Amino acid sequence: MKRSVEEMLASAEFRHLVARRWRVSIALTVALFVTYYGFILLVALDRTLLAQRIGEVTTLGIPLGVSVILVSWVLTAVYVVWANRSYDAEVARLRQLLRE
To answer: What burial letters (b/e) apply to 37-76, b meaning 16+ CB within 10 Å?
Structure first.
């Protein structure tokens, strides 16, 4: 059964999809902000901790800073995997309902 665009926009399926996308986006954004600003706060509030040597020339701040970058890559990958496996498939299904 072919649906109109207005019917699709008002449907519970579409609203559920939009709500799921927002929940995933907000969760990943919060995780990124906590990671990034947590590191920034650590730099601002406890420099002596980050200045501790963990090797001949490396301090603790270096691997923690690199880990902030790696966490952002992981969060991006999580979103891409979720979008490719779940979101895009659902969008394609809803588009098909508009065409049929």
So the answer is: eebeebeeeeeeeeeeeeeeeeebbeeeeeebeebeeebe
Q: How many residues belong to the chain?
A: 100
Residue 100 DSSP label: -
Three-class secondary structure assignment of 46-58: CHHHHCCECCCCC
In angstroms, the CA 3 to CA 99 distance is 8
pLDDT digits (tens, 9 = 90+) for 22-80: 999 999 999 999 999 999 999 999 999 999 999 899 999 999 999 999 999 999 999 99
Instruction: Return the axis-axis angle of helices 12-45 and 61-82, rounded to nearest 10°.
Output: 180
Question: What pLDDT, on the 0 to 100 scale, is given for residue 1?
Answer: 65
* CA distance linking residue 49 with residue 52, whole number of Å: 6
The closest alpha carbon to 86, from 31, 41, 43, 24, belongs to 24
